[in-house]
Amino acid sequence: MTEQPRIAIVGAGLAGCLLATLLARRGLEVTVYERRDDPRRTGPERGRSINLAVSARGLDALERVGLREESLGRALPMHGRMIHSVAGAESFRSYSADGTRAINSISRAELNASLLDVAEKTPGVTLQFGYRLRELNLDTGQLSFETLDGHRRRPHADIVLASDGSYSAARRAVTFRQDFTFSQDYLDAGYKELTIPAKADGEFALDPDALHIWPRGESMMIALPNLDRSFTCTLFWPKADFAELETDAQIRDYFARNYPDAAPLMPDLVDDFRHNPVGSLVTVKCWPWVHRGERVTLALVGDAAHAIVPFFGQGANCALEDCVEIDRCLDEAGGDWQRALDTYEVRRKANCDAIAEMALDNFVEMRERVNSKVFQAKTAAQHALERRLPGHYVSRYELVSFTTMPYAQIPDRMRKQNRATATAAGLGVGVVAGGSVVARAMWRRRRRR
Ligand SMILES: Cc1cc2nc3c(=O)[nH]c(=O)nc-3n(C[C@H](O)[C@H](O)[C@H](O)COP(=O)(O)OP(=O)(O)OC[C@H]3O[C@@H](n4cnc5c(N)ncnc54)[C@H](O)[C@@H]3O)c2cc1C
């Protein structure tokens, strides 16, 4: 490989743009190939999630390219969940014990546009729009793109970083390689987006400070606020259920019975329901993420390496964290790509597997468990513990959303905390009153280790 490798990034989504900027800031020349036309001119694709919840990990990554404050300035904080019952009643549950922490509803298109702007302004980055990767030859290092006007372009690269999403075309170059393990697990549930517009007086139709959930057992609807004072609602239903509502009357009747408080706020319900696509929810796992051919090294990044279901609001946060890790590994390896990428995949794999499992579990929590009295009591007790033992007891939600603790450490941390809590309970001490006993139990356990 030459001293300055030719670097190709496939996909100018959230991860691709951030990675391009971070690498170019290291003095490297990077070309980013994106299959779409420039999304800043063409707008978002219909039915592709309009907004995203961005939290600590995403913000930490954005801060590194000077986009944290700008992104927060265009975001709506959501301090908790608003649960909507079938009877139409609302109950608010804050995300953090002290009620001050929030996840942030951000327009995906705006965030992508900001990241594109920053990448474009960074010397060393070249953006190529309308380039759809068709083939990657790992032996020659040749990439074959089909352009929007039907031509073929065949550039070469030494390093290919594939950030082309869950259905990655670059990943196909290694799918049938020996020793490549790959799985894609689809949920029976699919998703469809609907809209609650601003009210006639221009105000939000629901409380904008919450992520709204209509938990219905096997299915649910959620809604996140947008800056134009509308809400984007997403139905997560068993796929077969979407097809069961055939007539306009059936759609209206179903929503009136199951989402009685939301249905009157959706003037375009029937049109949205009929025309917005049903998306799939997939978990992709594969290994290894780094592949070497005779002339090129390929590394998978973001959803291309580890697509997860969206129920913890972490897919994008996690993809952005990958880019930060690659940058960090390059630092540690003194710019040696081979060492850096080997470290990157090892460090990230266990973390991404961990968040994939937590995201699946959170689907059950959101659609079902939030309705249970036991779950509500447990959350209240956890918050009480957090207030009494700041820093010692932290809920899983907070560790995932409000810290950058490696995901893989979180399940273990929860187990230890829960054991300590159980110890306190075994001593006959009420959870709320027993803060100091729990603290002592945890301290003793730490000393034994
Ligand atoms: C319904 C839903 C809700 C979600 N909500 C959240 C949330 O609240 N919070 C959160 O953190 N995450 C959320 N996610 C997950 C998040 O969208 C993804 O994890 C994130 O977008 C991954 O970023 P990425 O850059 O790896 O891939 P992508 O964002 O998918 O970007 C891939 C890019 O590659 C381009 N591309 C694809 N194929 C080719 C090709 N052949 N050649 C060239 N370019 C190509 C695409 O056009 C795209 O620009 C949600 C996902 C869904 C489906």
Spans of at least 5 consecutive residues whose pLDDT stays below 50 are 428-449
| Total number of beta strands | 19
Q: Portion of residues in helices? A: 25-40%
Strand ordering within the main sheet: 6-5-14-15-16-13-17
List each distinct ligand once.
Answer: flavin-adenine dinucleotide
Structural class, from helix and strand content? alpha/beta
Cα shape: globular
Taking the sheet with the most strands, its summary is: 7 strands, mixed
Q: How much of the polypeptide forms β-strand, as a percent range?
A: 15-25%
Let me know the average pLDDT: 92
Separate helix tally: 15
Distance between termini?
46 Å
Using only CA atoms, what is the Rg? 23 Å
Describe this entry's structure for a reader:
Helix 1 packs parallel to helix 10 and helix 3 (56-63) packs across helix 10. The protein has a 7-stranded mixed beta sheet with strand order 6-5-14-15-16-13-17. The protein is of the alpha/beta class. The model is unreliable at 428-449 (pLDDT under 50). Helix content is 39%, strand content 24%. The chain has helices spanning 14-24, 39-42, 56-63, 68-73, 108-121, 239-244, 248-258, 269-275, 303-306, 315-332, 337-367, 373-388, 396-402, 410-426, 435-448; strands at residues 7-10, 30-34, 51-54, 76-78, 80-84, 90-94, 103-107, 125-129, 131-137, 142-147, 152-153, 159-162, 181-196, 210-216, 219-225, 231-238, 279-287, 290-292, 297-300. The structure holds flavin-adenine dinucleotide (FAD). Flavin-adenine dinucleotide binds at residues 10-16, 33-36, 49, 52-53, 131-133, 163-165, 169, 191, 234, 279, 302-303, 310, 313-317, 319.
